[in-house]
């Protein structure tokens, strides 16, 4: 008797579940599309990030939208720093080498 009852319920449950899933999937897709359209600030932000990305690739690793005046100022500042601090590549992070000091042995003599 239980087997017959379950066989009668499963088709009804299956159709009910599929209807709810289709309805929820359709509503969530509409809500997701509306949410993407409703946020102009986020869209503007993403557009600016993409624009900056293309400009930085075009600049080849240099400063984005920098003119000849900026390049001249940058080279002047680097030359000034090289004179003050002894030269070397100032665009590279320095390598620090720490050595331990020699300590005297203060145990019994």
TrEMBL record:
<keyword id="KW-0813">Transport</keyword>
<dbReference type="Pfam" id="PF05511">
    <property type="entry name" value="ATP-synt_F6"/>
</dbReference>
<dbReference type="InterPro" id="IPR036204">
    <property type="entry name" value="ATP_synth_f6_sf_mt"/>
</dbReference>
<keyword id="KW-0472">Membrane</keyword>
<dbReference type="InterPro" id="IPR008387">
    <property type="entry name" value="ATP_synth_f6_mt"/>
</dbReference>
<dbReference type="GO" id="GO:0005743">
    <property type="term" value="C:mitochondrial inner membrane"/>
</dbReference>
<keyword id="KW-0999">Mitochondrion inner membrane</keyword>
<comment type="subunit">
    <text>Component of the ATP synthase complex composed at least of ATP5F1A/subunit alpha, ATP5F1B/subunit beta, ATP5MC1/subunit c (homooctomer), MT-ATP6/subunit a, MT-ATP8/subunit 8, ATP5ME/subunit e, ATP5MF/subunit f, ATP5MG/subunit g, ATP5MK/subunit k, ATP5MJ/subunit j, ATP5F1C/subunit gamma, ATP5F1D/subunit delta, ATP5F1E/subunit epsilon, ATP5PF/subunit F6, ATP5PB/subunit b, ATP5PD/subunit d, ATP5PO/subunit OSCP.</text>
</comment>
<dbReference type="GO" id="GO:0045259">
    <property type="term" value="C:proton-transporting ATP synthase complex"/>
</dbReference>
<dbReference type="GO" id="GO:0015986">
    <property type="term" value="P:proton motive force-driven ATP synthesis"/>
</dbReference>
<comment type="similarity">
    <text>Belongs to the eukaryotic ATPase subunit F6 family.</text>
</comment>
<comment type="function">
    <text>Mitochondrial membrane ATP synthase (F(1)F(0) ATP synthase or Complex V) produces ATP from ADP in the presence of a proton gradient across the membrane which is generated by electron transport complexes of the respiratory chain.</text>
</comment>
<keyword id="KW-0375">Hydrogen ion transport</keyword>
<keyword id="KW-0496">Mitochondrion</keyword>
<protein>
    <recommendedName>
        <fullName>ATP synthase-coupling factor 6, mitochondrial</fullName>
    </recommendedName>
</protein>
<keyword id="KW-0406">Ion transport</keyword>
<dbReference type="GO" id="GO:0015078">
    <property type="term" value="F:proton transmembrane transporter activity"/>
</dbReference>
<comment type="function">
    <text>Subunit F6, of the mitochondrial membrane ATP synthase complex (F(1)F(0) ATP synthase or Complex V) that produces ATP from ADP in the presence of a proton gradient across the membrane which is generated by electron transport complexes of the respiratory chain. ATP synthase complex consist of a soluble F(1) head domain - the catalytic core - and a membrane F(1) domain - the membrane proton channel. These two domains are linked by a central stalk rotating inside the F(1) region and a stationary peripheral stalk.</text>
</comment>
<keyword id="KW-0138">CF(0)</keyword>
């Amino acid at each position: 008797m239980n087997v017959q009852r379950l066989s009668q319920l499963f088709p009804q449950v299956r159709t009910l579940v599929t209807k709810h899933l289709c309805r929820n999937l359709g509503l969530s897709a509409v809500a997701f599309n509306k949410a993407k359209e409703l946020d102009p600030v986020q869209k503007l932000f993403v557009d600016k990030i993409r624009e900056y990305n293309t400009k930085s690739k075009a600049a080849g690793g240099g400063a984005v939208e920098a003119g000849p005046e900026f390049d001249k100022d940058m080279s002047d500042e680097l030359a000034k720093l090289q004179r003050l601090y002894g030269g070397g590549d100032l665009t590279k992070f320095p390598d620090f080498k720490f050595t331990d000091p020699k300590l005297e042995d203060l145990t019994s003599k």
